[in-house]
Each structure stands twice: as structure tokens, then as C-alpha cells.
Design a protein that fits this description.
Chain lengths: ~650, ~425
């Protein structure tokens, strides 16, 4: 069952899917009701504001039920039987890993199983959402979304600051629209203002910032239209460059200090701010700095320059930049430069680039300035006007991106969160939406999107909705290999993200994060200095196990180096010892009975009791080895090398 | 089966050598190995010579300028300051900086007329690795994985595909992964040639390691029966490959310390030089496909000095790799391909850089039955377009298949039941052979 290509109006697809009339009628009424509510209550984000609202605002449980109903009826129509609801052990592990990124402790597993409350799953979700680990877990997810496609390798230095900032946003229910606005309009020191992450990661290059903001916040891939009309979509080259025209005044400025390096995101609203003064008016430039009035500038005189010289550079021109200017300009090698020599310098950058406006390059004549572009939003054709300042442009962009009449903003995050939690999205790949792509279960997606908007884009509301749906609570099953098979009849067992595996490992082995040394990776372009401390064990583990979260889950299978790490890494090796005060050592001392120890070990590593068959296998192993400690070390090693430990179930 | 001696094993080998048996023999001895590394290598190399061919892809990440490599245009405006030099073949001239490579020109064929439409790094890189443009619905296998599937030795202890140098974005991000062919043909990444890959030595003695593997395998059953079957299956394959790698003495291949100082110096003391030397060792040991990456060639500004900096480690490594393989009698069965994802604009931009230019770019081929000392295709005087014998990406891929005796039209079934040819369309460049 497939839906035709969608248009940008949220409800329009319902009108053309004629053959599905009975379902559609039901959906329309739900959707229309939600839509009206949205229209009435949409307001600027206020954390927690939704709680004081009238009953019209869709609740997480209400939306979850509607989504279940829509998905079930489509599955039934397609003749697909969904799997049953998973047991408590599996739900506890799944929800804990998805919401907080942490394994439940053996105690949690036991208490949850014994709790007779029929609403315990909903209560669990609330408890997990209230944990600070919730924000941390999802901040790490978005950190990877942004930094995995960074073109500026040094941007990784701001990862930890970004993670902290975003965790706080999510933990305090700051609306996703407000968060996106902060990211799009960010300025200032990249470490003190970590919402500059996306801009820093893309080196402040306007075309790349535009393409990434569009991919991440709208799920639309425009970057192919940089050089030509999009080959497999409707986007025209002009539309991409109109989007890029929102961002041409972003400047990254690097401040070189002997013991630290700082980078700032700045607005450059005049050409002077971009350092073109030297080239535009060489005579004035020389006169201004020429202290000994010889109409020539020495290196010493240039060092006194109190302003910004060139794009990307700081007040107090760094020596290496002066050297570079001299290299290029000092034709007669007298260690002095004249206005005439400045004029003869080769142009520093593409003519359009130093400008405060965006020019679409002429592909036939790449050295020309190209066509001047004005900002225009491709979704609705909105135009904020001409000659706007950097922040006016970026505020206009943020407004268009996050507008409640732009359906892609909510769809992009809903699709991502759903995919992260269920193993597959409504749209796949997860960051390739847009009017020519086809969603599976589009009505269900729309119902969540509208509830999300009505709840002030609160990420907690979104996760709560997904976690409470029956669809999320189904047993895992392998994804059907047929292209047309509908997803969501079961949950797909997907591989856990690097940070989640890392946290699970250190929890299970009872080791401190600092003592777990990851594999050394050569060639990582990280500068030294004070921030080098951020290359902790987690960073190194992530560089081996890290996966781009925008990749399709089914392509993520692990690889040989990861497996070798888990099998042989020397720190893991010493942590698996059963002697002394290790986690396993204590477990064995506290549980002299073998069957008890086995149960505890399973609870610890896999957050469940072993099956009867597993107990038999383990007991046979204990018997064969004949040495308790050694046999349990083997067992623990086998359990954290198992596919179950690395996967969601 | 605990104490196989070296001689028994040689005899085994003469009658169809069983590597699994060999593995047990080694681990029974406690890993230290009664076999000298050289002996083991000789055994496997013997099989290799019987069986087949291999390929080394020298991948120039970021797209190198054709004008500063093998299609210089000295004395023209577009040519910039780049000069041309003579080579060992009288009528072939290449860019200055490639003096060592020039000396090997009798074994090298240059293609100056590669042409393509894709000018975006990720997409073009995917295409130059898989032969296909990326699509949402299919994860195409890289040509390397396809070739490994066709040619690799069954149960070889080393991975059949190895990639050397920093990997691109994420796992298989640029099309260098095995795609739907699965983990058997997934490349093994070595980020720093010359350093032993991490975590290769077993955490416990060989016997106990195998005991653990056996236990792990049994315990995987439960998750498989509870909906995780597909995950368990692919995890088993990776575990199998990893444990083989742990147990084999062939991991010494990754150790370059046994090579002579003279040879190491000829390759060059650079990541790319060491990568090329490791590539030779891997191919010699029976690995089917090795990619060595070098870059970044994305010279939008300051093209001439940046390109020179990239050429200086590249030239001796390429030249020595060809000469070294030839000295060892391996060149005839090893195809070397030097290529990037596209070329660069003939016109120099105001920043002294060259931008993206897929319309015409160049590649080198050597070995694998390729007749060296010739140039395929020709570009206009100003470098703006091809005047003779254009070669498309599928043509290049078909040529590679022909050299390696792989059937380019062979179809593999994608997971959704769609048959996909190893190469879609294209014809081999016949002039390159014979």
C-alpha cells in the first residue's frame, strides 16, 4: 500500500488517496480537530506552559492511541499481523536505553517485574524523562547528527559544550522551535555559545550551513542543487542559492593566542568587517598604519593594526598572516610593502565570497562573481526583504524554518525520533523527506506532528508519546526483506549507539570512565591545548564505534575492529577478572550459589533472567571448566560480546 | 589434533590445504606458532598464484587536479605555472613533481579522458567506489567488495578487503563498504599503516579464547529465537572473521619492521608511502583488494603549492609500488589504479585554486595485464573538455573487471530481490590490453 507523492499542505494527501476512503474519513476528523487546536493555541515556546492549557491540547497518551489505531488498521488492510506486546524485562531495557541511554540495574529489573501496577510502563516513562540522563542521551544523538558531517575538524572541540547545552534544553522542555532558532541565529565564542555548533561544524560557509540546517531541521536534502537542479527532486539550483542567501554574513573569526585558541561566530555586515579594506583602499590603509611616514609598511607596523584584517582573522594580526601578506605582496623583497604592491596582490578569495551578499556562481565561468541572490524560503516562497543585516536574515530563516505552517519542521524531528526508537522511520532515509518522497503511514505521522506542535514542540512530549504507544511496545522481529512490506508490525532490533554501548560497558564492568582507555586513533586532527582533555576515553571509544545516526539502521552491523576491541582490549580484559574487588568478583562473593550467580550476571549484563536453556549451557560450561572464577570470566566475556548486549530488544 | 608439524602441513598443502585444519594446529600449539611467518606466507602465496588476481586502489580523496598530475598544459593560461617533464616513454609528458613515476612510465597507462557528471564529493566518491550513484533504496557494494566476492580465497585468514588511511564519514559512508554483500566483504580499516591494528592479540590463551568463542556461539541462540535472528547472524559472521584474525600468524603482514630500510625509504616515510608498502604486503599474502587513501586534494584555493605538497609523498610511493610488485613477479596479476572522484576546473579561480570539474579528469592504471607506456584519450589545448576517446566511469569499471578476469555483467541479488550487475553498462577500453 503506497501513498502518492505528497504536497506541502499537511492535509492535502488525504484528499487524493481516494481508495482508502474509510480510513481517511476517520483520519481527517482527527487531524482537522488537532489542526484547529494548533491554530488557536500556537504561541511562542514557554516551557511547561502546555500543562495549564485547556483539554483541547492533545495528550501524549491520546495521540499514542490514535497512532496505534491508524497503524493497526493499515496493517490489517495489508494483511500483516503485528507481533505481540513485549514482556516487562524487554520494555524496561528498551525504554531505559532509548530514553536515558542507560541499562536498568538488576534491582530495577526485579522491582519492575514485581510491580503489580497496570500503569507501570507509563510511570516508568515519566521517571526516565525526569532523569538528567534523558537530555544527555538525546544531546549525544544530535551531537552526532551535527558533527558527523562536519567539514571543520576542529569543531569537534566544542562537542562537549554543545552536548551540555542541548541536554539542558531537552531536560527543561525548551521547544524544538526555540532550540532550532538558537542554532540558526547563534553568535559568539563557540565554546561559550555552543549553539554555534552547526555553523562551526560547517566552518561558517553559508552554502554548507544552509544545506545542513535544511537537512537536519527540515529533513530536506538541498545540497545537490548547489551545482545543478536536483537530479531526483523538484528543487532548482536557484532555490538552494536563495536559501544560502540567508547566511552569507556569517563569519568565523579565529583568535590565535600562545596557549589557547578561540573561535567566534560573528556577523559581518559590512565589507570592512571582512577585512577588504586593505584591498579596497590600499592608499588609506598604508597611510593609517605608516608610523614613520615612508609610505611603506613594515611587518612591525602591521602588527599594530588594531582591527580585523582578513576574513577569519583577529585583531592584532597574527604573525603568520603578516608573513603571508608579505609573501604575496612584497614583490621586490625589501620587507616593506607599498600601496602599489597591495594592488598587485592576487585576489585572496572568490570574488563573491568576501562579499556581504551571496552570489550563485556561474558554472561556466567560475572566476566571475556570479549572480546576486536574495533570501527566499523554498517551502513557501517567503521573502524577508533586501539589504538585511546578518541577524535579520538569520532570524527570518529561523522563523520560516520553525513556522507552524512549515510542515517539514515537525516531520523531520518526529521522523527521526520515531526511527531512533522503533528502528525504522516513516520516511527512509531518515533525513530525506520532501514533497516528492513517500511516507509510510502518513496519517499517523501527521497526528504526531500536530500533537507535537500543539504541545509547543516539547521533545519530552514527543518521546513520551512514542514510548507509550503500543506500536513501540511490540516484540522485536527481523525486518521483512520485501521492499513493499509495511514497517511497524514489530520493533526492529537495531544496534545501540556508541555512547550507549560505552555506558553499558562501564556499568556492567564497574569501571570508571577515566580508567577505560580507548583505542588510539591516528590522524585525528585535533589541536593540542587546554581542550585536548576532551579527548577522554568516551571520545576515543566513539571514534571507533561511532555511527552517523542519519544512516539507515539496517546498514549498521558493526565491524571487525569493534569486535576485536570488545574481545581483546586490555582494559576490558583486566575488568573481567573474577578475583579481587571487580564487579564480577563481588557478584561471585555475594552469590555463593551458582544458579544465583548466573541469574545476577544475566541481570547485570542483559537486564533479564537467563532462560532454562541458557542455564543449562552455563552449567555445562562451569562443569567443563571446573574452576568457578575462570568459568564465570568466560561467561561474562561471552555475554558482553553477544549481539544481544549490543542491540535493542 | 594438537601438534601439527610444519612438514605435515606442507604436505597437507600439496593435497589441497585446509586452512581451518591449519588454524586448529596453530592454536593447539598456543598461538606462538611453529611456523615462521615467511613459511606461512609462502604457503598462502602459492595458493594465491594458482588462484588469482588482486587490485590496489590508490584513491586520491578530494579530487586531484588533472593539470598538476598527468594532463599538464604548460604554457597556457589554464595550465598555470605547472611545468611538464619527460618520462621513460618518449612521447608522454606529465606534470613536474612526478619524476619517480615518470621513470616507470613503460608500465603505466594514463587515461586523460575520464568523464562524469557528478561534481559533489560524497556522491562522486560513492560513484567512483561502487559504479553507481547513491540512491535511498539500495546500498551498493563497492567494486572492491564485488571483486573480493568473485576472487577472494575461501577462508583466507586475513580480510579480503582492506582499506588504509583515515576513513570517510561514518561506516561505509562514501561507498567503500560492502553494501548488501554483507560483512564478509566489508573492508578492514587500518588508519595508520606501520602500526599494528589495535586489539589483535587474544585477551586469553588460544585454547581458552576458543572455548569462549564456543560458549558465545551457544549463548547467541536465545536472542536469535526471540526476534534477533538477523542481528545474530551478521554478528556471528563478524565474530568469525575477527577471531580468525586473532588466531592467524598472518597478522604479521601488518608489521612493516621486517622490510629493508632501503625499500622503506624508496616508498617514502609518509602515511601514504607506508600505506603503499603495506598494500604490497597484503596483496602478497593473498588479500584481494586494498585501497590506500591520500588527500585532501580539494584545492579550491592555493592549488599549486598545496598540490605540490600532496604530490611529494605520492610520487615515490606510486613509483616504488609498481617497481616493487614487478620485482616480485606480482605486477602481472595485480592491477593498480590511481584515481580521485573528479577533476578540477582548468580555469584558475581568483584564489589561485581550482574548483570541481567532473567533465574531464585523469587516472593511472598499471599491472594486471594493462599495456603500459600509453595514453588513452586527449583533452583540448585549454583543458576544457575531451577531444578524443572519452572514458566513462562504467567504462573504467569494465576495464578493471576485464583486467581482473571478473565478469562485469554478473548480477548479484540485492536484499529486496533486485538483480544488480557488478558494472551497469560501459565497455572495457580495449586499447589498454595486449
Amino acid at each position: 500500500m503506497r501513498f502518492p507523492a505528497r504536497t506541502q499542505r499537511p492535509l492535502a494527501h488525504n484528499l487524493v488517496a481516494g481508495s482508502l476512503a474509510p480510513i481517511i474519513v476517520a483520519t481527517l476528523s482527527i487531524a482537522a480537530a488537532v489542526w484547529l487546536t494548533v491554530g488557536n493555541t500556537f504561541a511562542a515556546n514557554k516551557p511547561g506552559a502546555s500543562k495549564s492549557r485547556s483539554v483541547e491540547v492533545p495528550t501524549a497518551n491520546g495521540v499514542a492511541a490514535k497512532v496505534d489505531q491508524l497503524i493497526l488498521s493499515d496493517l490489517a488492510n495489508a494483511g500483516v499481523t503485528p507481533t505481540g506486546i513485549c514482556n516487562d524485562e524487554d520494555y524496561l531495557r528498551r525504554a531505559s536505553l532509548d530514553i536515558t541511554g542507560q541499562l536498568p540495574s538488576p534491582r530495577d529489573v526485579t522491582l519492575f517485574a514485581l510491580d503489580p501496577d497496570s500503569g507501570k510502563r507509563t510511570k516508568l516513562v515519566e521517571r526516565l524523562l525526569a532523569s538528567p540522563d534523558f537530555g544527555k542521551n538525546w544531546a549525544r544523538y544530535w551531537r552526532d547528527v551535527i558533527y558527523m558531517s562536519a567539514t571543520e575538524p576542529r569543531s569537534r572541540l566544542s562537542q562537549a559544550d554543545f552536548e551540555k547545552w542541548l541536554a539542558e534544553q531537552w531536560n527543561t522542555s525548551v521547544g524544538w522551535n526555540a532550540t532550532a532558532t538558537s542554532v540558526i541565529t547563534a553568535v559568539g565564542d563557540v565554546f561559550e555559545n555552543p549553539e554555534t555548533a552547526l555553523i562551526f561544524a560547517q566552518s561558517g560557509v553559508n552554502e554548507d550551513v544552509a544545506a545542513e540546517a535544511c537537512r537536519i531541521f527540515l529533513g530536506i536534502q538541498m545540497q545537490c542543487a548547489n551545482c545543478h537542479d536536483h537530479p531526483s527532486d523538484i528543487w532548482k539550483r536557484e532555490q538552494f542559492h536563495e536559501l544560502a542567501a540567508y547566511f552569507p554574513r556569517i563569519t568565523l573569526r579565529r583568535i590565535m593566542m600562545p596557549d589557547e585558541f578561540k573561535i567566534e561566530v560573528l556577523s559581518a555586515n559590512s565589507d570592512r568587517g571582512r577585512g577588504d579594506q586593505m584591498r579596497e583602499n590600499p592608499e588609506q590603509f598604508v597611510t593609517m598604519l605608516d608610523r614613520n611616514k615612508d609610505k611603506k609598511l613594515s611587518k612591525e607596523e602591521m602588527r599594530q593594526r588594531p582591527g580585523v584584517m582578513m576574513r577569519g582573522e583577529a585583531p592584532g594580526v597574527p604573525a603568520q598572516l603578516i608573513d603571508r601578506i608579505f609573501e604575496q605582496a612584497d614583490g621586490n623583497k625589501d620587507d616593506l610593502i607599498t600601496a602599489a604592491e597591495i594592488k598587485a596582490m592576487p585576489q585572496p578569495m572568490q570574488a563573491g565570497r568576501g562579499s556581504t551578499e551571496h552570489h550563485m556562481s556561474d558554472l561556466q565561468d567560475p572566476s566571475s562573481k556570479g549572480k546576486l541572490m536574495q533570501p527566499k524560503f523554498f517551502v513557501d516562497g517567503a521573502t524577508p526583504g533586501q539589504n538585511l543585516s546578518d541577524l535579520e536574515r538569520r532570524q527570518a530563516a529561523a522563523k520560516s524554518f520553525t513556522s507552524s505552517s512549515n510542515p517539514w519542521f515537525a516531520r523531520a524531528i518526529v521522523n527521526r525520533v520515531w526511527c531512533e526508537m522503533l528502528g525504522e522511520g516513516f520516511y527512509m532515509p531518515v533525513d530525506d523527506l520532501g514533497p516528492t518522497r513517500t511516507a509510510r503511514f502518513p496519517e499517523a505521522l501527521e497526528v504526531i506532528c500536530q500533537g507535537f506542535v500543539a504541545n509547543d514542540y516539547d521533545p519530552k512530549w514527543l518521546i513520551r508519546t512514542v514510548a507509550n504507544s503500543q506500536t513501540y511496545q511490540r516484540k522485536v522481529a527481523a525486518k521483512s526483506t520485501s521492499e513493499d512490506a509495511l514497517p511497524f508490525a514489530s520493533v526492529t532490533p537495531t544496534r545501540l549507539r556508541a555512547d550507549v554501548v560505552f555506558d553499558s560497558l562501564i556499568e556492567v564492568l564497574g569501571i570508571k570512565e577515566e580508567s577505560l582507555n580507548g583505542p588510539a586513533r591516528g590522524g585525528m586532527m585535533i589541536a593540542g591545548g587546554p581542550r585536548a582533555a576532551q579527548r577522554g576515553p568516551r571520545f576515543q571509544f566513539d571514534s571507533l564505534f561511532g555511527i552517523d545516526p542519519s544512516m539507515s539502521k539496517e546498514d549498521i552491523t558493526g565491524n571487525v575492529p569493534q569486535t576485536l576491541y570488545l574481545m581483546n582490549n586490555s582494559f576490558l580484559r583486566s575488568a573481567v577478572t573474577a578475583s579481587g574487588n571487580s564487579r564480577l568478583g563481588r557478584l561471585l562473593r555475594n552469590n555463593p550459589d551458582e544458579r544465583d550467580a548466573l541469574g545476577e550476571l544475566y541481570l547485570l549484563v542483559l537486564a533479564r533472567e537467563p532462560s532454562k536453556h541458557e542455564v543449562e549451557i552455563c552449567q555445562a560450561h562451569l562443569k567443563e571448566v571446573g574452576q568457578r572464577n575462570e568459568a564465570f570470566e568466560d561467561l561474562m566475556w561471552s555475554l558482553f560480546n553477544s549481539s544481544e548486549f549490543l542491540s535493542k530488544r | 589434533m594438537t601438534t601439527l608439524s610444519w612438514h605435515e602441513d606442507v604436505q597437507l598443502s600439496r593435497r589441497s590445504f585446509s586452512r581451518r585444519g591449519f588454524l586448529y594446529g596453530v592454536s593447539g600449539l598456543g598461538l606462538a606458532g611453529a611456523f615462521d611467518f615467511r613459511d606461512t606466507m609462502t604457503l598462502q602465496a602459492e595458493e594465491l598464484r594458482k588462484q588469482g588476481r588482486s587490485m590496489i586502489l590508490l584513491y586520491m580523496q578530494g579530487a586531484p587536479s588533472q593539470l598538476e598530475t598527468f594532463d599538464p598544459k604548460p604554457g597556457t593560461e589554464n595550465g598555470g605555472p605547472t611545468e611538464a617533464i619527460d618520462t621513460a616513454v618518449s612521447d608522454i609528458r606529465i606534470a613536474k613533481g612526478w619524476e619517480q613515476t615518470a621513470k616507470q612510465m613503460q608500465d603505466i597507462a594514463i587515461i586523460r579522458s575520464l568523464t562524469n557528471k557528478e561534481g559533489e564529493h560524497q556522491r562522486a566518491s560513492y560513484q567512483l567506489h561502487t559504479g553507481y550513484l547513491p540512491t535511498g533504496s539500495v546500498k551498493h557494494p563497492s567494486l572492491g567488495s564485488n571483486i573480493a566476492k568473485e576472487l577472494s580465497l575461501a577462508n583466507h585468514d586475513l580480510p579480503s578487503v582492506v582499506s588504509i588511511g583515515e576513513a570517510g564519514r561514518g561506516q561505509g559512508g562514501s561507498g567503500s563498504g560492502a553494501g548488501f554483500l554483507g560483512v564478509d566483504y566489508e573492508p578492514f580499516h587500518v588508519s595508520n599503516a606501520g602500526q599494528m591494528p589495535e586489539n589483535l592479540s587474544a585477551s586469553v590463551n588460544g585454547g581458552r579464547f576458543q572455548r569462549r568463542l564456543g560458549l558465545l556461539d551457544k549463548l547467541e541462540g536465545e536472542f536469535a529465537s526471540r526476534g534477533g535472528a538477523s542481528v545474530v547472524e551478521s554478528h556471528r559472521k563478524i565474530t568469525d572473521k575477527s577471531s580468525k584474525l586473532v588466531l592467524t600468524p598472518l597478522t604479521k603482514t601488518f608489521d612493516l619492521s621486517g622490510e629493508s630500510t632501503g625499500l622503506k625509504e624508496r616508498y617514502g616515510d609518509s602515511p601514504f608511502g607506508r600505506g603503499c608498502l603495506l598494500a604490497r604486503r597484503l596483496v602478497e599474502t593473498g588479500v584481494t583488494f586494498v585501497e590506500v587513501r591520500h588527500g585532501n586534494w580539494d584545492t579550491h584555493d592555493d592549488n599549486f603549492s598545496r598540490t605540490a605538497g600532496l604530490i611529494s609523498p605520492c610520487d615515490p610511493a606510486v613509483a616504488t609500488l609498481i617497481a616493487d610488485l614487478k620485482d616480485r613477479g606480482l605486477l602481472e596479476k595485480t592491477l593498480i589504479v590511481w584515481v580521485g572522484e573528479f577533476g578540477r576546473t582548468p580555469r584558475v579561480n581568483p584564489r589561485g585554486g581550482r574548483d570541481h570539474w567532473p567533465r574531464n579528469f585523469n587516472a593511472l592504471l598499471a599491472g594486471g595485464g594493462i599495456r603500459g607506456g600509453q595514453v588513452i584519450g586527449e583533452t583540448a589545448k585549454d583543458g576544457m573538455g575531451i577531444t578524443k576517446d572519452p572514458v566513462s566511469v562504467p567504462d573504467l569499471f569494465s576495464t578493471i573487471c576485464k583486467s581482473l578476469h571478473v565478469d562485469a555483467a554478473k548480477e548479484n541479488m540485492s536484499p529486496i530481490g533486485r538483480p544488480l550487475k557488478i558494472v551497469d553498462g560501459g565497455t572495457p577500453v580495449e586499447k589498454l590490453f595486449g
